[in-house]
Amino acid sequence: MRQTVVSVSPFAISHNTRNFYRTIDFIPERWLLPEDLHQVVSGLTVVEANEIRNAFTRCLAVDQRAAWQPFSTGPRNCAGMALAWAEIRYTLAAMVLSFDLQIPHEARDFSWSAQKTYSTWERKPLMMSCGQRKELPTF
Ligand code: HEM
Asked: Which atom of ligand 1 lies at the shortest distance from residue 87's CA?
């Protein structure tokens, strides 16, 4: 039907097992480029390197990377995407360089899906009539 808006939540896309392997698990290796894998595993023990290679191979077979579009796509996608990426990379690099990060024991059972989500507020136009001031205000 013409002028029908179709949308899907990024959360639903990311958690659909047709799009991603082990959707709720933290597997950062899934975003590696095949040509970067060698560099990432160099210096690791054989066991650690195999773990990363296995995770990468499984994700490569299942993951639809193009399904992940947090900035949306098309002519009205996020105008600030490049700035956002620069900020994210800078912040993450600064954090990793400055801190040793660990999840404390009491936070181990943290659940991403047990969080609340809120909608945004669509404001209606505020009509206003503007006439030129006859006198300037004195303060
Ligand atoms: C992680 C950070 C960000 C994410 C995930 C994000 C995501 C999005 C998404 C999903 C849209 C809607 C696209 C649509 O309607 O289909 C959007 C629009 C927009 N974003 Fe972002 N955004 C981020 C950061 C920023 C920043 C830092 C700026 C500006 C400095 C920005 C400026 C805009 C603007 C101007 C639009 C409207 C574009 C238009 O309607 O043509 N965004 N963003």
From this structure: 27
